[in-house]
Amino acid sequence: DDDTFSNVFCEHSKKLINVHLFALAAKFYSLYNLGVCTPLEDILEALRGDNQGIRGIKTDEFMNNKKSHEVQVMSELVNNIANYCGIKQVIDIGSGKGYLSSFLSMQYNLKVYGIDSSNTNTNGAHERNRKLKKHWRAYQSRGRANLESQTLEKANDRPAESEIKCKAINEKPLNNHSSLQSQDQVTIQDLVPSCGSTEIATSETSKHTEVDLVAQTQSDESKLSEEVLAVLNVLPADAVEVFSSSQWNCGELCEEEKAQRKMASVKAKESKSSESNLYFPLTSCITAETELSDIITDLEDCMMVGLHTCGDLAANTLRIFTAKPEIKAVCSVGCCYHLLSEQFENQEDCPEEVWGFPMCQYLKDQGWCCGRNARMSACLALERVAVGQMLPTESLFYRAVLQVIIEEIYGVTKSDRHVGKTFSKSSSFIDYVRKSLKKLELDDSKLPDSCIMDYYEKYKHRMNELEAFNMLKVVLAPCIEVLILLDRLCYLKEQDNIAWSGLVKLFDPVKSPRCYAVIALKKQSC
Hints:
Elements: H1 19-28, H2 31-34, H3 40-48, H4 65-85, E1 89-93, H5 99-108, E2 111-116, H6 119-157, H7 159-181, H8 198-221, H9 226-234, H10 245-248, H11 255-274, E3 279-283, H12 292-295, E4 302-310, H13 312-323, E5 327-335, H14 361-365, H15 372-378, H16 382-386, H17 393-408, H18 429-439, H19 449-459, H20 463-493, E6 498-505, E7 516-522
Parallel strand pairs: 1-2, 1-4, 2-3, 4-5
Antiparallel strand pairs: 5-7, 6-7
Helix pairs in contact: 1-20, 4-5, 6-9, 7-8, 8-11, 15-20, 17-19
Domain Methyltransferase: 66-343
Protein name: Methyltransferase-like 25
Keywords: Methyltransferase, Transferase
Protein backbone atom coordinates (compact mmCIF):
# COMPACT_ATOMS: atom_id res chain seq x y z
CA ASP A 1 0.00 0.00 0.00
CA ASP A 2 1.44 3.40 -1.01
CA ASP A 3 0.03 4.96 2.17
CA THR A 4 1.90 2.59 4.52
CA PHE A 5 4.99 4.79 4.70
CA SER A 6 3.29 8.14 4.08
CA ASN A 7 3.95 9.35 7.65
CA VAL A 8 7.73 8.91 7.59
CA PHE A 9 8.27 12.59 6.71
CA CYS A 10 6.30 15.69 7.64
CA GLU A 11 4.09 16.70 4.75
CA HIS A 12 4.93 20.40 5.12
CA SER A 13 8.51 20.61 6.42
CA LYS A 14 9.63 17.34 4.73
CA LYS A 15 11.58 16.52 7.89
CA LEU A 16 11.92 12.98 9.21
CA ILE A 17 9.36 12.47 11.98
CA ASN A 18 9.12 8.68 12.37
CA VAL A 19 12.50 6.93 12.57
CA HIS A 20 10.99 3.47 13.19
CA LEU A 21 8.78 3.70 10.09
CA PHE A 22 11.77 5.01 8.12
CA ALA A 23 13.76 1.89 9.03
CA LEU A 24 10.84 -0.40 8.11
CA ALA A 25 10.42 1.34 4.75
CA ALA A 26 14.14 0.95 4.00
CA LYS A 27 13.98 -2.75 4.85
CA PHE A 28 10.85 -3.20 2.70
CA TYR A 29 12.63 -1.84 -0.37
CA SER A 30 15.82 -3.87 0.07
CA LEU A 31 16.84 -6.48 -2.51
CA TYR A 32 16.28 -9.30 -0.06
CA ASN A 33 12.71 -8.25 0.70
CA LEU A 34 11.74 -7.45 -2.89
CA GLY A 35 12.44 -11.04 -3.90
CA VAL A 36 14.14 -10.18 -7.20
CA CYS A 37 17.33 -12.18 -6.57
CA THR A 38 18.01 -15.69 -7.82
CA PRO A 39 19.45 -17.84 -4.99
CA LEU A 40 23.06 -18.87 -5.61
CA GLU A 41 22.25 -22.50 -4.74
CA ASP A 42 19.52 -22.59 -7.39
CA ILE A 43 21.68 -21.29 -10.21
CA LEU A 44 24.60 -23.58 -9.28
CA GLU A 45 22.30 -26.60 -9.23
CA ALA A 46 20.81 -25.61 -12.59
CA LEU A 47 24.21 -25.09 -14.19
CA ARG A 48 25.79 -28.25 -12.79
CA GLY A 49 23.03 -30.73 -13.43
CA ASP A 50 24.32 -34.04 -12.06
CA ASN A 51 27.94 -32.89 -12.04
CA GLN A 52 28.84 -31.74 -8.52
CA GLY A 53 32.14 -30.22 -9.59
CA ILE A 54 35.43 -30.34 -7.71
CA ARG A 55 36.62 -29.19 -4.31
CA GLY A 56 39.90 -27.36 -4.01
CA ILE A 57 42.33 -26.27 -1.36
CA LYS A 58 41.35 -23.36 0.84
CA THR A 59 42.48 -20.04 -0.55
CA ASP A 60 42.83 -18.51 2.90
CA GLU A 61 46.32 -20.00 3.01
CA PHE A 62 47.50 -17.34 0.54
CA MET A 63 44.74 -14.67 0.64
CA ASN A 64 43.11 -12.71 3.43
CA ASN A 65 39.75 -13.92 4.74
CA LYS A 66 37.64 -11.49 2.69
CA LYS A 67 39.42 -12.11 -0.62
CA SER A 68 39.52 -15.85 -0.02
CA HIS A 69 35.75 -15.93 0.51
CA GLU A 70 35.10 -13.87 -2.64
CA VAL A 71 37.45 -15.85 -4.89
CA GLN A 72 36.24 -19.27 -3.72
CA VAL A 73 32.57 -18.48 -4.30
CA MET A 74 32.86 -16.50 -7.52
CA SER A 75 35.35 -18.86 -9.20
CA GLU A 76 33.03 -21.82 -8.64
CA LEU A 77 30.14 -19.96 -10.24
CA VAL A 78 32.26 -18.74 -13.17
CA ASN A 79 33.55 -22.25 -13.83
CA ASN A 80 30.02 -23.66 -13.87
CA ILE A 81 28.84 -20.97 -16.30
CA ALA A 82 31.86 -21.58 -18.56
CA ASN A 83 31.23 -25.34 -18.57
CA TYR A 84 27.56 -24.85 -19.29
CA CYS A 85 28.32 -22.56 -22.25
CA GLY A 86 31.11 -24.82 -23.53
CA ILE A 87 33.81 -22.13 -23.33
CA LYS A 88 37.35 -22.14 -21.91
CA GLN A 89 38.35 -18.47 -22.21
CA VAL A 90 37.59 -15.92 -19.49
CA ILE A 91 38.24 -12.16 -19.53
CA ASP A 92 38.64 -10.65 -16.06
CA ILE A 93 37.94 -6.91 -16.26
CA GLY A 94 39.61 -4.77 -13.59
CA SER A 95 41.61 -7.80 -12.48
CA GLY A 96 43.80 -5.86 -10.04
CA LYS A 97 46.36 -8.13 -8.39
CA GLY A 98 44.99 -11.17 -10.22
CA TYR A 99 43.54 -13.11 -7.29
CA LEU A 100 40.46 -14.30 -9.19
CA SER A 101 42.31 -14.75 -12.50
CA SER A 102 45.05 -16.91 -10.98
CA PHE A 103 42.58 -19.10 -9.16
CA LEU A 104 40.37 -19.61 -12.22
CA SER A 105 43.35 -20.68 -14.31
CA MET A 106 45.00 -22.93 -11.74
CA GLN A 107 41.99 -24.53 -10.11
CA TYR A 108 39.70 -24.81 -13.13
CA ASN A 109 42.18 -24.85 -16.02
CA LEU A 110 40.49 -21.89 -17.70
CA LYS A 111 42.44 -19.60 -20.01
CA VAL A 112 42.16 -16.20 -18.33
CA TYR A 113 43.08 -12.74 -19.57
CA GLY A 114 43.22 -10.29 -16.67
CA ILE A 115 42.91 -6.68 -17.84
CA ASP A 116 43.67 -3.78 -15.52
CA SER A 117 44.33 -0.10 -16.20
CA SER A 118 47.21 0.01 -13.72
CA ASN A 119 50.57 -1.20 -14.99
CA THR A 120 51.66 -1.56 -11.36
CA ASN A 121 48.79 -3.99 -10.73
CA THR A 122 49.62 -5.93 -13.90
CA ASN A 123 53.31 -6.30 -12.96
CA GLY A 124 52.31 -7.26 -9.43
CA ALA A 125 49.90 -9.87 -10.79
CA HIS A 126 52.71 -11.36 -12.93
CA GLU A 127 54.98 -11.71 -9.92
CA ARG A 128 52.24 -12.97 -7.62
CA ASN A 129 51.17 -15.57 -10.20
CA ARG A 130 54.77 -16.81 -10.47
CA LYS A 131 54.97 -17.29 -6.70
CA LEU A 132 51.52 -18.89 -6.59
CA LYS A 133 52.59 -21.52 -9.13
CA LYS A 134 55.39 -22.55 -6.77
CA HIS A 135 52.83 -22.76 -3.96
CA TRP A 136 50.63 -24.94 -6.17
CA ARG A 137 53.53 -27.29 -6.99
CA ALA A 138 54.27 -27.66 -3.28
CA TYR A 139 50.69 -28.79 -2.68
CA GLN A 140 51.04 -31.17 -5.61
CA SER A 141 54.19 -32.77 -4.14
CA ARG A 142 52.72 -33.02 -0.66
CA GLY A 143 49.49 -34.48 -2.04
CA ARG A 144 51.34 -37.12 -4.05
CA ALA A 145 53.42 -38.11 -1.01
CA ASN A 146 50.30 -38.42 1.14
CA LEU A 147 48.57 -40.38 -1.61
CA GLU A 148 51.39 -42.92 -1.86
CA SER A 149 51.66 -43.22 1.92
CA GLN A 150 47.95 -43.83 2.44
CA THR A 151 47.79 -46.25 -0.48
CA LEU A 152 50.59 -48.35 1.04
CA GLU A 153 48.95 -48.29 4.48
CA LYS A 154 45.63 -49.46 3.07
CA ALA A 155 47.33 -52.18 1.01
CA ASN A 156 49.11 -53.54 4.10
CA ASP A 157 46.10 -53.33 6.40
CA ARG A 158 43.44 -54.75 4.10
CA PRO A 159 44.98 -56.79 1.25
CA ALA A 160 41.81 -58.72 0.56
CA GLU A 161 39.72 -55.57 0.22
CA SER A 162 42.36 -54.06 -2.06
CA GLU A 163 42.09 -57.04 -4.40
CA ILE A 164 38.33 -56.57 -4.66
CA LYS A 165 38.72 -52.86 -5.32
CA CYS A 166 41.38 -53.43 -7.99
CA LYS A 167 39.11 -55.86 -9.78
CA ALA A 168 36.28 -53.34 -9.69
CA ILE A 169 38.54 -50.63 -11.12
CA ASN A 170 39.40 -52.76 -14.16
CA GLU A 171 35.71 -52.94 -15.09
CA LYS A 172 34.34 -49.61 -13.91
CA PRO A 173 36.04 -47.01 -16.20
CA LEU A 174 34.73 -48.66 -19.36
CA ASN A 175 31.18 -48.52 -18.04
CA ASN A 176 31.60 -44.88 -17.06
CA HIS A 177 33.07 -44.10 -20.45
CA SER A 178 30.12 -45.51 -22.35
CA SER A 179 27.58 -43.78 -20.15
CA LEU A 180 29.31 -40.39 -20.42
CA GLN A 181 29.54 -40.66 -24.20
CA SER A 182 25.78 -41.01 -24.48
CA GLN A 183 25.03 -38.17 -22.08
CA ASP A 184 23.76 -34.96 -23.65
CA GLN A 185 24.61 -31.49 -22.35
CA VAL A 186 22.58 -30.59 -19.25
CA THR A 187 19.67 -28.26 -19.98
CA ILE A 188 18.33 -25.65 -17.58
CA GLN A 189 14.63 -25.35 -18.23
CA ASP A 190 13.23 -22.37 -16.37
CA LEU A 191 16.19 -20.87 -14.57
CA VAL A 192 18.93 -20.72 -17.21
CA PRO A 193 18.44 -21.43 -20.95
CA SER A 194 20.69 -23.49 -23.19
CA CYS A 195 23.86 -21.60 -24.02
CA GLY A 196 26.57 -22.27 -26.59
CA SER A 197 26.99 -24.99 -29.19
CA THR A 198 25.92 -28.58 -28.51
CA GLU A 199 28.77 -29.78 -30.73
CA ILE A 200 31.29 -27.91 -28.60
CA ALA A 201 29.78 -29.31 -25.41
CA THR A 202 29.82 -32.88 -26.78
CA SER A 203 33.44 -32.48 -27.86
CA GLU A 204 34.40 -31.13 -24.44
CA THR A 205 32.57 -33.97 -22.71
CA SER A 206 34.39 -36.54 -24.84
CA LYS A 207 37.74 -34.87 -24.22
CA HIS A 208 37.26 -34.73 -20.45
CA THR A 209 36.02 -38.36 -20.41
CA GLU A 210 39.27 -39.66 -21.91
CA VAL A 211 41.49 -37.66 -19.56
CA ASP A 212 39.30 -38.49 -16.55
CA LEU A 213 39.80 -42.27 -17.01
CA VAL A 214 43.06 -42.02 -15.12
CA ALA A 215 41.52 -39.83 -12.41
CA GLN A 216 38.65 -42.32 -12.05
CA THR A 217 41.10 -45.13 -11.31
CA GLN A 218 42.80 -42.90 -8.80
CA SER A 219 39.59 -42.00 -6.94
CA ASP A 220 38.19 -45.54 -6.92
CA GLU A 221 41.40 -47.09 -5.61
CA SER A 222 40.85 -46.00 -2.02
CA LYS A 223 38.88 -43.54 0.07
CA LEU A 224 41.63 -41.03 0.72
CA SER A 225 41.45 -38.39 3.40
CA GLU A 226 39.61 -35.15 2.57
CA GLU A 227 42.89 -33.22 2.69
CA VAL A 228 44.57 -35.36 0.03
CA LEU A 229 41.56 -35.29 -2.26
CA ALA A 230 41.34 -31.54 -1.91
CA VAL A 231 44.98 -31.06 -2.85
CA LEU A 232 44.77 -33.28 -5.92
CA ASN A 233 41.46 -31.95 -7.15
CA VAL A 234 42.56 -28.32 -7.00
CA LEU A 235 45.32 -28.86 -9.56
CA PRO A 236 44.57 -28.44 -13.27
CA ALA A 237 44.91 -31.40 -15.62
CA ASP A 238 48.31 -30.27 -16.89
CA ALA A 239 49.75 -30.08 -13.35
CA VAL A 240 49.00 -33.66 -12.30
CA GLU A 241 51.22 -36.44 -13.56
CA VAL A 242 49.31 -39.34 -15.07
CA PHE A 243 49.78 -42.43 -12.93
CA SER A 244 50.81 -45.56 -14.81
CA SER A 245 49.23 -48.93 -14.04
CA SER A 246 52.43 -50.16 -12.39
CA GLN A 247 52.12 -47.47 -9.69
CA TRP A 248 48.80 -48.92 -8.63
CA ASN A 249 49.84 -52.58 -8.71
CA CYS A 250 46.32 -53.66 -9.57
CA GLY A 251 47.11 -56.61 -11.80
CA GLU A 252 46.98 -56.94 -15.58
CA LEU A 253 44.75 -54.57 -17.55
CA CYS A 254 42.83 -55.51 -20.65
CA GLU A 255 44.27 -54.28 -23.97
CA GLU A 256 41.37 -51.89 -24.61
CA GLU A 257 41.87 -50.11 -21.30
CA LYS A 258 45.63 -49.92 -21.86
CA ALA A 259 44.99 -48.17 -25.19
CA GLN A 260 42.58 -45.76 -23.57
CA ARG A 261 45.03 -44.89 -20.79
CA LYS A 262 47.82 -44.38 -23.31
CA MET A 263 45.61 -41.97 -25.27
CA ALA A 264 44.73 -40.08 -22.08
CA SER A 265 48.43 -39.80 -21.15
CA VAL A 266 49.35 -38.44 -24.60
CA LYS A 267 46.55 -35.88 -24.51
CA ALA A 268 47.54 -34.77 -21.00
CA LYS A 269 51.15 -34.23 -22.15
CA GLU A 270 49.96 -32.27 -25.19
CA SER A 271 47.80 -30.14 -22.94
CA LYS A 272 50.75 -29.53 -20.63
CA SER A 273 52.98 -28.29 -23.44
CA SER A 274 50.35 -26.08 -25.11
CA GLU A 275 48.74 -24.63 -21.97
CA SER A 276 51.65 -24.23 -19.55
CA ASN A 277 50.59 -20.62 -18.92
CA LEU A 278 46.84 -20.12 -18.65
CA TYR A 279 46.79 -16.66 -17.06
CA PHE A 280 47.83 -13.53 -18.95
CA PRO A 281 47.80 -10.17 -17.10
CA LEU A 282 47.39 -7.22 -19.50
CA THR A 283 47.35 -3.44 -19.03
CA SER A 284 44.61 -1.46 -20.76
CA CYS A 285 41.96 1.09 -19.88
CA ILE A 286 38.53 -0.38 -20.62
CA THR A 287 35.66 1.82 -21.85
CA ALA A 288 32.30 1.06 -23.43
CA GLU A 289 33.93 1.43 -26.88
CA THR A 290 36.89 -0.90 -26.19
CA GLU A 291 37.60 -3.46 -28.93
CA LEU A 292 38.74 -6.56 -27.08
CA SER A 293 40.22 -8.04 -30.24
CA ASP A 294 42.76 -5.20 -30.23
CA ILE A 295 43.94 -6.29 -26.79
CA ILE A 296 43.53 -10.07 -27.03
CA THR A 297 44.82 -11.44 -30.35
CA ASP A 298 43.41 -14.94 -29.91
CA LEU A 299 39.95 -13.82 -28.76
CA GLU A 300 37.40 -16.63 -29.02
CA ASP A 301 34.01 -17.47 -27.52
CA CYS A 302 34.42 -16.44 -23.90
CA MET A 303 32.77 -15.02 -20.81
CA MET A 304 33.48 -11.73 -19.06
CA VAL A 305 33.85 -11.41 -15.30
CA GLY A 306 34.58 -8.61 -12.87
CA LEU A 307 35.13 -8.85 -9.12
CA HIS A 308 34.42 -5.43 -7.61
CA THR A 309 34.77 -3.44 -10.79
CA CYS A 310 34.97 0.19 -9.77
CA GLY A 311 32.45 2.91 -10.72
CA ASP A 312 31.65 3.08 -14.45
CA LEU A 313 33.70 -0.04 -15.20
CA ALA A 314 30.84 -2.25 -13.98
CA ALA A 315 28.40 -0.52 -16.36
CA ASN A 316 30.87 -0.64 -19.26
CA THR A 317 31.44 -4.36 -18.66
CA LEU A 318 27.74 -4.98 -19.30
CA ARG A 319 27.75 -2.74 -22.38
CA ILE A 320 30.72 -4.60 -23.89
CA PHE A 321 29.04 -7.92 -23.12
CA THR A 322 25.83 -7.00 -24.95
CA ALA A 323 27.73 -5.56 -27.95
CA LYS A 324 30.27 -8.33 -28.63
CA PRO A 325 28.90 -11.60 -30.07
CA GLU A 326 31.91 -13.65 -28.91
CA ILE A 327 31.12 -12.91 -25.24
CA LYS A 328 28.58 -15.55 -24.27
CA ALA A 329 28.12 -14.77 -20.58
CA VAL A 330 28.90 -12.17 -17.93
CA CYS A 331 29.28 -12.22 -14.14
CA SER A 332 29.93 -8.78 -12.71
CA VAL A 333 30.15 -7.59 -9.10
CA GLY A 334 30.40 -3.81 -8.96
CA CYS A 335 31.59 -1.46 -6.23
CA CYS A 336 32.49 2.20 -5.58
CA TYR A 337 29.07 3.56 -6.48
CA HIS A 338 30.24 7.05 -5.47
CA LEU A 339 32.52 7.08 -8.54
CA LEU A 340 29.68 6.46 -11.00
CA SER A 341 29.10 9.17 -13.58
CA GLU A 342 25.47 10.32 -13.79
CA GLN A 343 23.78 11.61 -16.92
CA PHE A 344 21.36 13.90 -15.13
CA GLU A 345 23.62 15.13 -12.30
CA ASN A 346 25.41 17.78 -14.39
CA GLN A 347 23.29 17.94 -17.50
CA GLU A 348 25.28 20.72 -19.11
CA ASP A 349 28.44 18.61 -19.40
CA CYS A 350 29.21 16.07 -22.16
CA PRO A 351 25.71 15.36 -23.53
CA GLU A 352 26.97 12.56 -25.81
CA GLU A 353 29.03 10.75 -23.17
CA VAL A 354 28.33 7.18 -22.05
CA TRP A 355 27.25 7.34 -18.42
CA GLY A 356 27.46 4.89 -15.54
CA PHE A 357 23.93 5.71 -14.38
CA PRO A 358 21.24 5.31 -15.49
CA MET A 359 21.71 2.48 -17.96
CA CYS A 360 18.15 1.32 -18.64
CA GLN A 361 15.80 3.25 -20.88
CA TYR A 362 13.09 3.40 -18.23
CA LEU A 363 15.17 5.50 -15.83
CA LYS A 364 16.62 7.55 -18.70
CA ASP A 365 13.11 8.51 -19.80
CA GLN A 366 12.38 9.64 -16.25
CA GLY A 367 15.61 11.64 -16.01
CA TRP A 368 16.52 9.85 -12.80
CA CYS A 369 19.40 11.15 -10.70
CA CYS A 370 20.84 9.86 -7.41
CA GLY A 371 23.50 12.47 -6.66
CA ARG A 372 26.92 11.96 -5.07
CA ASN A 373 25.68 11.97 -1.46
CA ALA A 374 23.20 9.17 -2.17
CA ARG A 375 25.81 7.17 -4.07
CA MET A 376 28.24 7.60 -1.18
CA SER A 377 25.56 6.25 1.15
CA ALA A 378 25.07 3.22 -1.10
CA CYS A 379 28.66 2.20 -0.31
CA LEU A 380 27.95 1.84 3.42
CA ALA A 381 27.70 -1.62 4.99
CA LEU A 382 24.47 -2.13 6.95
CA GLU A 383 25.18 -5.80 7.72
CA ARG A 384 28.52 -4.97 9.30
CA VAL A 385 26.97 -2.30 11.49
CA ALA A 386 24.22 -4.76 12.45
CA VAL A 387 26.77 -7.21 13.89
CA GLY A 388 28.55 -4.55 15.91
CA GLN A 389 31.17 -3.21 13.49
CA MET A 390 30.28 0.39 14.21
CA LEU A 391 30.93 3.38 12.00
CA PRO A 392 34.23 5.27 12.51
CA THR A 393 32.49 8.18 14.24
CA GLU A 394 35.63 10.07 15.25
CA SER A 395 37.17 10.06 11.74
CA LEU A 396 33.81 11.14 10.27
CA PHE A 397 33.67 13.95 12.83
CA TYR A 398 37.20 15.07 11.92
CA ARG A 399 36.23 15.12 8.26
CA ALA A 400 33.03 17.10 8.90
CA VAL A 401 34.79 19.80 10.95
CA LEU A 402 37.57 19.99 8.35
CA GLN A 403 34.98 20.77 5.69
CA VAL A 404 33.65 23.66 7.78
CA ILE A 405 37.21 25.00 8.16
CA ILE A 406 38.07 24.94 4.46
CA GLU A 407 34.75 26.55 3.56
CA GLU A 408 34.94 29.34 6.15
CA ILE A 409 38.69 30.02 6.18
CA TYR A 410 39.64 29.25 2.57
CA GLY A 411 36.34 29.76 0.76
CA VAL A 412 36.63 26.36 -0.93
CA THR A 413 33.37 24.48 -1.51
CA LYS A 414 34.53 21.95 -4.13
CA SER A 415 37.86 20.31 -4.90
CA ASP A 416 39.13 17.57 -7.18
CA ARG A 417 41.65 16.52 -4.55
CA HIS A 418 40.98 14.02 -1.78
CA VAL A 419 41.98 13.76 1.86
CA GLY A 420 42.12 9.97 1.73
CA LYS A 421 43.13 7.93 4.78
CA THR A 422 44.72 10.83 6.65
CA PHE A 423 42.94 10.05 9.92
CA SER A 424 44.81 6.77 10.51
CA LYS A 425 48.15 8.57 10.03
CA SER A 426 47.37 11.49 12.34
CA SER A 427 48.26 11.87 16.02
CA SER A 428 45.66 14.54 16.81
CA PHE A 429 42.98 16.73 15.27
CA ILE A 430 45.53 19.49 14.67
CA ASP A 431 47.85 17.04 12.92
CA TYR A 432 44.90 15.75 10.86
CA VAL A 433 43.89 19.24 9.70
CA ARG A 434 47.43 20.24 8.71
CA LYS A 435 48.10 17.04 6.79
CA SER A 436 44.72 17.34 5.04
CA LEU A 437 45.34 20.98 4.05
CA LYS A 438 48.66 19.99 2.49
CA LYS A 439 46.92 17.25 0.47
CA LEU A 440 44.36 19.80 -0.70
CA GLU A 441 47.23 22.19 -1.58
CA LEU A 442 45.98 24.85 0.83
CA ASP A 443 48.32 27.05 2.88
CA ASP A 444 48.10 25.91 6.51
CA SER A 445 50.45 28.66 7.79
CA LYS A 446 47.55 31.11 7.97
CA LEU A 447 45.76 28.83 10.45
CA PRO A 448 47.17 28.75 14.02
CA ASP A 449 46.69 25.72 16.26
CA SER A 450 44.38 27.66 18.55
CA CYS A 451 42.01 28.40 15.67
CA ILE A 452 41.92 24.73 14.70
CA MET A 453 41.07 23.70 18.26
CA ASP A 454 38.38 26.38 18.48
CA TYR A 455 36.55 24.70 15.62
CA TYR A 456 36.94 21.32 17.32
CA GLU A 457 35.50 22.57 20.60
CA LYS A 458 32.67 24.41 18.84
CA TYR A 459 31.28 21.23 17.24
CA LYS A 460 32.39 18.55 19.72
CA HIS A 461 29.01 18.47 21.47
CA ARG A 462 27.32 17.62 18.14
CA MET A 463 29.23 14.37 17.57
CA ASN A 464 26.21 12.33 18.68
CA GLU A 465 24.07 14.10 16.07
CA LEU A 466 26.60 13.20 13.40
CA GLU A 467 26.56 9.55 14.51
CA ALA A 468 22.74 9.42 14.38
CA PHE A 469 22.73 11.03 10.95
CA ASN A 470 25.24 8.50 9.60
CA MET A 471 23.24 5.61 11.07
CA LEU A 472 20.22 6.81 9.09
CA LYS A 473 22.40 6.84 5.98
CA VAL A 474 23.46 3.25 6.71
CA VAL A 475 19.82 2.15 7.03
CA LEU A 476 19.01 3.78 3.69
CA ALA A 477 22.09 2.34 1.89
CA PRO A 478 20.45 -0.91 0.63
CA CYS A 479 17.61 1.06 -1.01
CA ILE A 480 20.03 3.14 -3.07
CA GLU A 481 22.03 0.06 -3.99
CA VAL A 482 18.77 -1.57 -5.14
CA LEU A 483 18.18 1.29 -7.56
CA ILE A 484 21.66 0.99 -9.10
CA LEU A 485 21.57 -2.81 -9.39
CA LEU A 486 18.02 -2.97 -10.77
CA ASP A 487 18.99 -0.32 -13.34
CA ARG A 488 21.73 -2.67 -14.59
CA LEU A 489 19.42 -5.67 -14.57
CA CYS A 490 16.71 -3.78 -16.47
CA TYR A 491 19.30 -2.72 -19.05
CA LEU A 492 20.02 -6.41 -19.71
CA LYS A 493 16.31 -7.23 -19.82
CA GLU A 494 15.89 -4.60 -22.57
CA GLN A 495 18.43 -6.33 -24.85
CA ASP A 496 17.17 -8.70 -27.55
CA ASN A 497 20.19 -11.01 -27.49
CA ILE A 498 20.00 -11.97 -23.79
CA ALA A 499 18.47 -15.35 -22.97
CA TRP A 500 18.60 -15.04 -19.17
CA SER A 501 19.76 -12.42 -16.68
CA GLY A 502 19.48 -12.06 -12.93
CA LEU A 503 20.86 -10.75 -9.66
CA VAL A 504 22.59 -13.26 -7.38
CA LYS A 505 23.81 -12.70 -3.83
CA LEU A 506 27.27 -14.27 -3.99
CA PHE A 507 29.02 -13.29 -0.77
CA ASP A 508 28.44 -13.02 2.94
CA PRO A 509 27.73 -9.27 3.25
CA VAL A 510 29.54 -9.06 6.59
CA LYS A 511 32.74 -10.30 4.95
CA SER A 512 32.13 -8.55 1.62
CA PRO A 513 29.45 -5.79 1.66
CA ARG A 514 29.29 -5.43 -2.14
CA CYS A 515 27.95 -8.95 -2.48
CA TYR A 516 25.55 -8.89 -5.47
CA ALA A 517 26.46 -10.17 -8.94
CA VAL A 518 24.76 -9.23 -12.19
CA ILE A 519 24.75 -12.38 -14.33
CA ALA A 520 23.56 -12.89 -17.91
CA LEU A 521 23.77 -15.51 -20.66
CA LYS A 522 23.38 -14.83 -24.37
CA LYS A 523 20.94 -16.59 -26.63
CA GLN A 524 22.44 -19.58 -28.41
CA SER A 525 22.67 -17.90 -31.82
CA CYS A 526 24.16 -14.68 -30.40
